[in-house]
Design brief:
With 427 residues, this protein is α/β, with parallel strands linked by helices. It is built from 17 helices and 12 strands.
Length: 427
């Protein structure tokens, strides 16, 4: 592996390490209550969060968290259940029902510690009365393919749920609820992180229905009827059942970008952090990032080389082809095409949870010779992009970033390195 590729990997690893539950959970643990401590949670990081809580908790603790298949870690007193992501399954539904029952069992002197991270929306799935798991699965599949933002997707999910959108904390009242959140959403909005099971929901059934109509999604009849009648709205700001619910965001995407920026600076690259909330179609964002890198190489603006251009957020992929999408690899393929083999510019984009889309691959690396090697391998980059098949493209080139489950999740990490070689080519 070249020095530049190694540096890209080191920056990604620093971003992931900054959000390690072992680092971010202990400073936020409260004093034990007079009564029981019940740990409830959902998300790709929730099992590791529960494990860390167990290791540091002074006193008895019990509970149940649900995480994605392959993301479980051993706990002695907190039960770990695995379920499907991003489309929910029966295992997740059964776990969510048990989590809700545990919340309802809490008394006034008890503490409910909610360990919540990205992925929790799909994993904590409990259909609202009158809806089935099949109804929710059908809507989820359509939302994931249509290009909707995570904010829009989770607006719908909250209003089809019996546990999200503040309902978990409402069920635990009058117990105190302390939610520890690892944010994976642009803007770090607690109502969007895992669809906000412990916080008030500012949106309505009408908002959820509007999302479906905006993307031309025809939901099952039971879903449309549920949203139109809206007999059971989610708890809103000021709801007395949420009076004893507190939220702390313990890890944020921006902190991970800043950690990676320090690695770049130590290696002699001037870091430019564009922000942690960049959204839009993955291929369009890839073209924009390529333009920024080319400008840096040609004019020294907005930052002179050697430089590292970092960004985070959650792009979307509208799947129209036969491929499986993957927002980071799709972004990278569009970026490579826009760079047109410009010398001295490298890039990495990967999901900090280790899973890009539905593939057990975090992301990939683009090198200055990516398109040349693709042509030599008989790959038509533009046709593959049109087919939403970028995972196959980078697999053939052996440029995938494979980490396995990282047990955290602060959304996507992207960095472009504009090297000294790019400066030489400019002159």
């Amino acid at each position: 592996m070249s020095e530049v590729a190694t540096l890209l990997r080191r920056m990604f690893e620093a971003a992931v390490a900054a959000a390690d539950p072992a680092r971010v959970i202990p400073p936020h643990l409260p004093e034990p209550p007079k009564g029981r401590t019940i740990v409830l949670g959902a998300g790709k990081a929730s099992a590791r969060m529960a494990q860390v809580i167990e290791e540091h908790w002074r006193g008895p603790v019990e509970g149940l968290v649900v995480t994605a298949y392959g993301h479980a870690v051993p706990c002695r007193r907190i039960e770990i259940v695995e379920a499907a992501h991003p489309v929910p399954d029966e295992a997740g539904m059964r776990a969510a029902q048990r989590i809700l029952e545990l919340a309802r069992s809490a008394g006034e002197e008890d503490l409910v510690l909610a360990a919540i991270s990205g992925g929790g929306s799909a994993l904590l799935t409990l259909p609202a009365p009158g809806l089935s798991l099949a109804d929710k699965q059908a809507v989820n599949r359509e939302l994931l393919r249509c290009g909707a933002t995570i904010r829009e997707i989770n607006t719908v999910r909250r209003h089809l749920s019996a546990i999200k959108g503040g309902r978990l904390a409402a069920a635990a009242f009058p117990a105190r609820t302390l939610a520890l959140l690892i944010s994976d959403v642009p803007g770090d909005d607690p109502a969007v992180i895992a669809s906000g099971p412990t916080v008030p929901d500012p949106t309505t059934c009408a908002d959820a229905l509007a999302v479906l109509e905006r993307y031309g999604i025809r939901p099952p009849p039971a879903v449309r009827e549920h949203l139109e009648r809206c007999h059971d709205e989610s708890p809103k700001p000021g709801d007395p059942r949420l009076a004893r619910a507190e939220t702390r965001i313990v890890a944020r995407p921006l902190a991970s970008l800043l950690a990676a920026a320090e690695v770049a600076r130590a290696a002699g690259y001037a870091p430019l952090v564009l922000g942690d909330a960049i959204e839009g179609e993955a291929r369009e964002v890839g073209r924009v990032l390529a333009g920024i890198a080319l400008a840096a190489a040609r004019s020294g603006h907005p930052v002179p080389p050697p430089c590292a251009i970092l960004s985070g957020g959650e792009t979307t992929v509208t799947v129209r082809g036969r491929g499986r999408g993957g927002r980071n690899v799709e972004l990278l393929l569009a970026l490579a095409l826009a760079l047109e083999s410009a010398p001295g510019i490298w890039a990495l984009a990967a999901d900090t949870d280790g899973i890009d889309g539905a593939e057990a691959v975090a992301g990939a690396i683009v090198r200055p010779d990516t398109l040349d090697r693709a042509r030599a391998a008989g790959l038509d980059a533009r046709a593959i992009l049109a087919d939403n098949d970028a995972h196959r493209f980078f697999a053939v080139l052996d440029d995938r970033v494979v980490t396995g489950p990282t047990l955290t999740n602060v959304n996507d990490f992207r960095v472009l390195l504009v090297t000294r070689e790019a400066m030489t080519a400019r002159s």
